[in-house]
Design brief:
Layout: H1 6-23, H2 28-46, H3 51-70, H4 75-97, H5 99-110, H6 125-140, H7 150-158, H8 171-174, H9 177-180, H10 185-218, H11 226-257, H12 275-281, H13 284-298, H14 306-324, H15 328-347, H16 349-352, H17 358-377, H18 381-391, H19 400-419, H20 423-431, H21 436-458
Amino acid sequence: MLFASTVFIFEFLPAVLLLYYVVLKKFRTGQNILLLVASLLFYAWGEPKYVLIMILSIIVNYLFGLLVDKFRQSKAKSRLVIALTVVFNLGVLYIFKYLMFTIENINSIAGLHLSVPNIVLPIGISFFTFQAMSYVIDVYREKGEAQKNPLNVGLYISFFPQLIAGPIVRYETVAYQIKHRKESFDKFSEGVCRFIIGLAKKVLLANTMAVVADHAFDMPSSELTVVMAWVGAIAYTFQIFFDFGGYSDMAIGLGKMFGFDFLENFDYPYISLSVSEFWRRWHMSLGTWFRDYVYFPLGGSRVKSKTRLVFNLFVVWSLTGIWHGANWTFLCWGLMYFVLLTIEKLVGWEKKYPDKMKLLRRIYTLFFVVMGWVLFRAESIGDAGAYFATMFGGGNLIDDTTIYYALNYIVYFVIAILVSTPIFKNLSLKAKGDNPVIVAVSTVGLCILLLVSVSYIVKGAYNPFIYFNF
């Protein structure tokens, strides 16, 4: 089920809110059971049989959590449980996400003809698998208590706002909230506003940018012009940001409606002055997950040799690329960032020149980010190479189709640029207060955004969703 759908907005969400706040008011256990059942139904809506994978993950990780807690005094036993946790969760993820890719490449490289199973990727498996591991690991690290009630573990792993595309919620950040969260009218109102803003980003900006990006990337390289290639790459740069960022806004807003506080997932990444800063602002929940569960355990940057630092970065960014999908393009995308981040770490120019050459640094950062998204979007390394070749002069400069798309979507590009910066956020902060005029204008503006977004959904506008693939 999509957040940006009439079924979710007008049926599923109102029904859950009604039961949560009216029927089960002040009955925390009942509310948690409701949210768990609703989350499983939400997931089963798109693929009923794969909800069994979700339930298996809940049960097994619940048991691992109990075992880690039981063997806390025995370092050897508790570490064995952690090892089994990692093997189980990554094993399930490997089977559904990478097994076909592995067999296909073995056949290609070794000239074999092994049978390739047709395995459908369960939606959001990368997200809920990482959350499941976070539960057991955080219990092991004593950053959250082991849940004796399996329903609470189920709620943490499957909670529908962040189930299929994040943000990846760390157990330590919500362990207390599962039983002791506090709902309020102010928090609920804030959640509604945040949901509407995220919905508008997704429906009005991401979906519109997708039309331009898909046209450019689907064109034969012989027909693609230089300008259209750049327009398509920039459109995809905005599409993926507003698609994923909008979804995160909606998830955070929904969490607040039910009393949960999720950490932010995006912080205006396209204003970054370096690639390192970009990754401190982009998909922060994934970045901190790899930092705390992979990079720091390897020694992080506090290691004795630069060789070890480079190795640590290589491991993290190889895994980051592979996490996104079973394609060589994702691995190369991750390795590209490994090279850039390694250079920045070793040179240390962020610390040496924090306030110099800001314009050039922004241009440098955005250039490589856009190049990275081209590689990320391409179906294969060959397709990416052909697209790059066109971008850098390997085709006609411009044609009538390019002019059509540029003129018809220029307003959306301007809005996308402005929304990618903190301009509107800063204005809203300055305007905050109890001034009834400001409150009224804000309310009307949000209502208009909601109505326009819903009208786009109702009329069946183009509505792809990138992160369903991960």
